[in-house]
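>> received
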Amino acid sequence: MTDPTLPPAPAAPAPQRLRVLYAEDMAQLRELIVIVLERDGHTVDTVANGALALEKFLAHPGQYDVVITDHHMPGMNGLELTSALRALPYRGHMIVFSSELSEAVDLAYRRLKVDYILPKPIFPAQLRELFATLGKAPAAAAPRITASSR
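>> returned
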């Protein structure tokens, strides 16, 4: 029973809802990420490659808090997309998913100040934990996670 003379406990802050653009050539992975993130209240737009992501981003500048990209995609890969977005300049969060990256490509992503480089497969619990962190930190302050530090 609560004491009516005490002020009510402060409500926990609502988690930040993020607007996400996800570039991935595998339709099943796009669908999985949409299901996981939209259940947590985030808005997710998906495209099949980097060129389509850049086109969508340019059509709606300022709309996205987070851009997630696969590295290996036809047409424009994730590194090319990241480079193009940083040249605009896009200062939001950047996440790279990849099954494998060479040391040179990993370093190139780091130079472009991506927030996270995560090895595939990505598990829903891991993604939810990551998005909880993103909602609290500015893009430049987010810690780096790479396949090599896993």
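>> Residues 27-39 form the longest helix (13 residues).
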